């Protein structure tokens, strides 16, 4: 089977360019803010483990891990979408593009987490304004 790919160059007018920039900003911001929420939850989880170990409530680090394993934040697709939902209430500009645009970006983040936990050495990174070439779909 032969697959073909086509590349098209679009020439948006100034109003369309402005809209594309807004969409790209919303996608990058959705990615970064959802990633930040997950990292914050994970940091709180690690701090709780350290608190248990240093307070003497548990004998070892492994025992603390076993005790708190149900509380470990899992970056499932559902949990990431839930975070996006709450972020849209906090940051109204995330509601400006079509909902599928930001949802696709969060789905891409979920895929990045899945690849990371399957053994890919690259963890999901924050997107930078001038180096983010991923755009949106």
Please characterize this protein's 3D structure.
It is built from four helices and no strands. Helix 1 (14-55) crosses helix 2 and helix 3 crosses helix 4 (99-117). The chain starts with 13 loop residues before the first helix and ends in a 20-residue tail after the last helix. The chain has helices at residues 14-55, 61-68, 77-90, 99-117. By secondary structure, it is mainly α. The model has no long low-confidence stretch (mean pLDDT 87). The radius of gyration is 19 Å and the shape is elongated.
Provide a quick synopsis of the model:
This protein has 137 residues and is mainly alpha-helical. Helix content is 61%, strand content 0%. The longest helix is centred in the N-terminal third of the chain and has 42 residues, at 14-55.
Distance between the termini: 26 Å
If you compute it from the alpha carbons, what radius of gyration comes out, rounded to the nearest whole angstrom? 19 Å
* Secondary-structure element series: HHHH
Structural class: mainly alpha
Layout of helices and strands, plus pairs?
Layout: H1 14-55, H2 61-68, H3 77-90, H4 99-117
Helix pairs in contact: 1-2, 1-3, 1-4, 3-4
